[in-house]
Each structure stands twice: as structure tokens, then as C-alpha cells.
Amino acid sequence: MIAQNNVRSTNNDPVESSESYPITGGTNGAGTSRLFRQFGSLFSSPAPTTDPAGYVEFGSISDPVASSGRTLGTFAGVFCPVALSMFSALVFIRVGFIVGNAGLYVTLLQFIIAYVILLFTVSSVCAISTNGAVEGGGVYFMISRTLGPEFGGSIGTLFFLANVVGCGLAISGCAEGIIQNFGPSDGTGSGSIPDGRWWRFLYCSSLNTLMLIVVLIGAEMFAKTSMMILGVVVICLLSTYVSFLTQGPMDVSIPHENSLVNFTTARYTGLQADTLWSNLHTNYTKDYTSNGNQVNFAVVFGVLFSGVTGIMAGANMSGELKNPSKSIPAGTLSAVLFTFLCYMALSVLIAATTTSTLLQNNFLFLGPINLWPTFVTIGILTATFSTGLSNLIGASRVMEALAKDRVFGPLMSFVVKGTYKNNPIAAVIASWVLVEAILLIGSLNTIAQINSVLFMLAYLATNLACLGIEITGAPNFRPTYKYFTWHTAFIGLLGTAIMMFVINSIYALSSIILCLLLVIALHLFSPASQGAQWGSISQALMFHQVRKYLLMLDSRKDHVKFWRPQMLLLVSSPRSCCPLIHFVNDMKKGGLYVIGHVKVGEFADNDSSNDPTIEEYTQWLSLVDHMKVKAFVELTLSRNVREGIQHLIRISGMGAMKPNTTILGFYDEEQSKDFFEHEDSPYKTSEFDGNGIKLFPYRKSGESKSLGVVDYVRIIDDVLRMRKNLCLCRHFHRLDKQMIARNNHIRYIDVWPVNIFEPKNEDPFDVVSQFMMQLACIINMLPVWKKLELRVFLCESETVSENSAAFERPAEHRLDQRLKLLRISASIHKIPEWSKDIDFAKHRNILKQFTGNSDSNQLMAEENINRSKLYMQRINQIIRDRSNATAVTFMYLPTPPATPSVDYKEKCHHYLDLLTELTFDLPPTILVHGIDAVTSTTL
Question: pTM for the complete prediction?
Fold first, then answer.
């Protein structure tokens, strides 16, 4: 309602005016559904088309899958990329290193741990991917649409980096295989190609550039290539199994770069029980490829896990899959099972045929012992090359998704502009450049640990997303993948969190800190609208917890010690009451703050098909954001303002968290000020001015009010009868917090705890007086207001002065003791003029006629009315004389006239006239009436 700076004036003095309740237009949202585009492959019937008018028609002969560029199935689009990524450099290059150092028992245990983590993470991925349409970006798309833009963007960025590092790892493994087979085989330096740190970087860069060319051709080319490469890798792996079973004992040379040992050969024994027995237990040594660093459980597991991180390779291709929701679960699970069986068999065969000396000193021993050594060379090159391809295309797709979502604003706009035929050329090139930087690290085992930690963080976020959405019990979370519960997500989350720190605590902590910094940065700078478009798990979790705690919050257990103001501010037009909205935000002291607005009209007469308050609600939310206040918004449609306010008082809040204090603007005739347009206003904005229409219109000069004086006074009476504390606010258009902060002239917050209409010596100690002291104390606690001094004015009637002087000091003393008991730091100021006013005794009974305490039903004499106004002007002068340096004044609000009475309407007018005279030309003033005790002197 009238939470504006409004006044009516006598003697033609300018005072604030209340606002009407105009009907304002709402914002319209429009958009075209992508349902059939996303799920086109699920329908056997032709895809619908949309005509220019926006109507959907069926029977179009166009293929929705082809038109969207989705051409890959389960095997080519998911199984092959996942299987190849999980083989990577591990299968031919590092399984021997793992078995030789960790022993068979620990190796099998580490594979089981790794695959348990992967299996539960895959369950989470399958649950999310079968709960809706998955678009480009894979895991990033899943996490961002579940956890929201902040966590989604940060985890997506780290997942992008994980793919970049994974690509560097695969290329390093590929280069290592090339050097082993075509470089110097011993210390003589003979070989087809030279070796050395920078030579290896050259080979890696060449491989990286070759991958760039393949990926630039497109995802379909990659899919066709991956199917062929997987066939080659499987054949090469089978040749390795056959060789273990058929090859006899032999000596295998030690690579020339291994300078940690002084022998040149080590023994391969073939299938022997003694060899298996010797390889069962751990035997950690030094890693000759990383400057002799000591190997331990963490290093071995880091290398192992880096080779099996490819479970997201299929999800990364989601933008090219015909049916992502079906292909991702089926393809990923089958690839995980296939690679697990291959690794377990390979580990057992290696432990049963190869001595630990050979395993620890020649990581590429599979070539020399193979019946057809060329097969191992081909297997190394194809497995690592395909993994690098998968990671490079995955990184580019994640980067493209980040750019399309504008997670980093215009910073990545070049990616969107650099897309050609659905292939993000610019993203591919940017990923290629970052891979080049990773290749400078050199050591494959070092890159492997970084890769493992980054992927584990992405897996942790995936499990967290699934766990959160499952805990919230969101009814729309209905994945068709049935082998998922919150237990699987929790185990996956716990496992990834623990193993991250097991692998390398420094890398793990660094990645988490980087993730948190990205979360904070995106929260501050990312467009806020994304969370609303995508949906954020934080909103679901907060709803779940808030509902639970609201049910636990019992109003029957309220205690005055823990009372706090819970405000309902009734606003007609926020344009004219911005300072008051901000002031009430300060006064709420962490309590509930609701901004209420009554829209006058008949629901049945509304031209729109919807309730107009629904359209306006988003505008009011935008207003709250602009004002930077912590408030809720409640709107209602009613036939008149009074009835609407009754609705708002009853329905605002929920459970035990409901407003206990109602705040209205004062009723007067002063011209309103538009704080959104005024040049010097800190609230100036053009956000609510669009297409020539001003949102939140207010009453202009000369326009009549929609609310009469009698209705206004009745609203005051309604609030008090509904047992709500009441504040009437006047002159708040004059409030300037910035001036208070920088101007030392404004020094006080004043409290006048006396009922001007019926003063008594006990006034400073009644419920109303203590309530206004409480509000003043709350304001005085805040930073801007803390520098101001709180003053309490002691006003005593002439009855005190007629008695002995001994009675004067006790009143002041009692007030001082009361303030100390309430822990309120305030100075007490006596008003000498008050007790000397000889007219007071004559006016006390007259003034009582205008309040709810009046027992008189007699008509009021004109002479008495005029004398009352003159007396109010005298009181007003006394207050004004002491308000030159006052920021805000709190005053006692008497109850309105009681109903029914023979002259009720006339009393309402006189009641408001007297309040107008009382508050004329004062600083921002709050007339306060409290209902219940709000202070406590007990511990």
C-alpha cells in the first residue's frame, strides 16, 4: 500500500503524498521448445516443423536427426571412444610399470578401486543422461544444468583442462612408443630418429598437429577413425595375450635412457609359477623416466587411474549422438566392463611371465617379447593417438559449450564465431595450443598424476550433482537408468575425494582451490539469468532444507529474548519510496522482510488471460535486485486497498516466520519524487523504463488518490486489531544515507517516548515506548548509523511539576535504569517547556477524543478542534527546535478513533490532521505503535 513519502498539509504546507495502485504491464517471455529437436530420434514419426507464427505442424518429411547434425550411434559414438580412451597409453606402456612396482595383489586391488569409482560415477552419468536431453558439452552440460552456472562453469573449466592434459598424456605415450621402436636402442646412438628432450617435444608437437588436422575434419571422421583404431588395438592386444602364452624365456635389453642401473638386459621367463610368486607383493623402486623419483602407492595409482579416465569420452560426444540418453549408458557401461576384463587378464599374464627387474627398468618390454613386435608398435601408436583424438575433440566440445553458455561473458565469444558446420574450429585450435603447453612438462608419469586429479575432480562433481538432486527428492528427477541410488553417488563421491589426495595431495588441493576461485568469480561476474534458465541444485537443496526447518520452527516456542523485527512494508509505487525501502532493510536486523503491494481491480474484469500479479512479480524481483535489499515480494489483487492489505497481512510469510510489524507511508498531499529518474539519486536507473512505458507508475500532481482518509485510518485500526506492530513513515524522501555517512552535521537518532494525545509519567516504560526504543537501538547497531548518538527525550506533564522536585529525578533515574537493563546506550534529555505548558491540562481530555481510548460519543466543538491543532503545532515546534542534527525521529503513535461512533469519519480526519501537524517539517519520522513486549532484562 502506501509505503511512500506522502503527506497532507494544513496551512498549504508541502507534505508527502500517498500513491495510488495503478495497473502496470508485465514482462513477456517467449521461446520455442526444443523438445522434438532434442528427442527427435526417439520418435518414429516425422519431426514436427514450426511455421513462422510459431504453430507446430506434424508430417514434415525432414529428418530431425540429420538436420540437427546428430549422426553417431552407440557403438561408434560411445563404446569406441570410451574403450580407446580407457586403453590409452596404459595398456601397452604402463601396466608393466604398475605390476613391477605394486605387485599383482596391489595392482588388482588398485584396478578394482579405480573401476568401483568409475562404475559408481558412470551410474551418476547414466542417471543424469537418462533424465533429459543431453546436448553438446557432455559432462559439463550435465553438471551445469544440475549444479547451476557457478559450479557447472568451474567444473566444466577444470574438465576442459583435464581433457587437455589427457591429450598431452596420450601424445607423450605415443612419442615414447615411437622413440622406443625407431630411436636409439642403446648407448651408441644408432637408430632411425634422434632422441632427446627437445626432439621428443618436436615429435609430440608433430603428433599434436596431426591430431588437429583430423579433428578439424569433424567428429564424424573421428568416429569412423575410432572404430577402425579400436579394431587394430584389439588385434594387437590379442597378439600380446598369445605371446605371453607361447613365448619362452629370453633376455630383453634395457633402454639407453635408463641411467639408474648398470646392466643392459633383464629376464623374461615365460609362464612360470616362481615368476608369479615373486611378483605378488610390492617392490617399489625409482622411476627412470622422471629423473629417478621414488615410486610409491600414490604414484602407481595416479598412473593407473590416468589410463582409465575415459568414461566421459562418450558423453563428450553427446552433441553428435542420435540418442544420447540411450547411447551414453549402454556404450559407457559395456566399454567399462570390456576394458576391466582386458586389464585384469593383462596384469595376471604380466605377473606370471616377466621378472620385476624387467618390469621396473623397461616400460615398453611388450614389444621385444611379442611374437610379432610390430603389432605392439602399432597398438601403442593407435591406442595413444586415438585417446589423444578423443581428448582433443572432447576438450573442444566442452570449450564450445562454455562459450555458448557465455559462462565467461564475451571472453570466449571467438569460439562461437569460429564454428563451421557444427565443428568448433576456434575451440579446437585453442585446445591444441594448450596441449602444446602441457607437452613441455615432458614426463609421462608426472602428466598422468595431474590428469588423474583433474578427472577425479570432474567425477566428484558429477557424483555430487546426482547425490544432491536425489536427496532433494525433485519429482522431475526420474532417470530411466534404474541402477542408481543416492548410495552409489555417495560412494563415488567419497571414493574420488579420498583417492584425489592419495594420488597427490598438492595437486588435489590446488585443483580444489582453483575450482573454488572459479566458483566465486563466476558467481560475481557470470550472467545471473543462466541459473534461472538451467535450474540450479542449490535452489532445490535450499528448498528442501528450508521446508524442513520451517516445519521445525514453532511459533508456540517463541521467546521475547530472541524477538526480532519481521517487517511487512506496504508499497504503492517503489519509485517514490526508495529510501524507505532501504531504511526498512536496515531496520529488520536479520529478520523477515516482505515488500507488499496491492493491485486494485477485479479478477473477473481482467483483460489478460493470466492474473496480472503473475506478470508483475518478476518486475518486483528485479526491483529487489536493483535496490540490493534482502526482501521477499508479495502481490495481491483486490477490489480496494484496505481489503488487499488485510490479505497481505494474513498471507505474508509462512509458518512461524510471518511479519510481526506492518509499515505504511504517511497519508498526505506532497508531490512524490521519482528516485529512478532524479539525477542525484543513488537509485537512478533506466531498467524499469522500456518501450515508452514506465513500470511502477506513481501519482502525478493533480491526480486524485484512490484511497480516502477514512479508509487509511481504518487500515491503521485493522493492523492493530490483527495484532501487528505498526509504523507510519513520513518525510523519508529526505533521507540520504550517503550524506549521513560523510556529513558530521547529522549526529542523532531521536526517540520521543510519550503519547502526545494522552501523556503519562509512565510513558517511557510502556510497551509502545520500549518497542520504539528497540527499533532505534537496532538502527544504531548498523555501520552507517553507528556513529550517530541515540537520544531519548523525557517528557513529563504539569502534574509532576506541581509536586515536589523529588519526583522529577526519580522519573529520569527510572528511565536511565531501564535503558541500562535493556543494554541500550542512549543519552536522556529533559524538556523543560513540557512541564511549563499551562495548556496541557486543558487539552488532555480533548485530545483523547481522537483516539481509541475515547469514551465520548458527543460531537466535537469546533473551538476544541482548533485549540488541539494549535497545541500540536506547539509540540511540533518543540521537537523541531531539537531536530536540526537529527537523522531519524521515532515518535509515539496513538491508537486511531474507535468504531462505531456518531462522528467517526470526522474523528478520522481530525486524527490524521493532528498527526500531520505533529510531524510537520521534521526529519524522516516514524510513528510507532507496539502491541507486545519485545525486550527482555533476563538472561
Answer: 0.64
